[in-house]
Design a protein that fits this description.
alpha+beta, OB fold (Dihydrolipoamide Acetyltransferase, E2P), 5-stranded antiparallel sheet, 1 helix, 5 strands, 45% strand, disordered C terminus
Length: 82
């Protein structure tokens, strides 16, 4: 799933993403993948997985969406390589 960071609470280490389907999803800095929490900004487009936590939806395995596009494209290019 993808979405855009809408809120970052730096001193607590968490934030919220608005997913493409309009749902607000919680994330914590420890669930980032190959990113530093301090480098995230409101408006960054993220790719992530969602699960149901005790207080609602939460995102994990978060990556920048541009990085996710790169990961997804590579196998397709290899399939159609001459």
């Amino acid at each position: 799933m993808t979405g855009v960071i809408k809120e970052i609470v730096r001193d607590k280490g968490y934030g919220f993403i608005e997913a493409v389907d309009g749902r607000m999803v919680f994330f914590h800095q420890r669930w980032l993948k190959k990113l530093r929490f301090r480098n995230l900004n409101i408006g960054d487009e993220m790719a992530f997985l969602i699960n149901d936590g005790p207080r609602g939806l939460r995102a994990f395995n978060l990556r920048l969406a541009s990085d996710e596009d790169e990961i997804v494209r590579r196998p397709v290019e290899l399939l159609f390589k001459d």
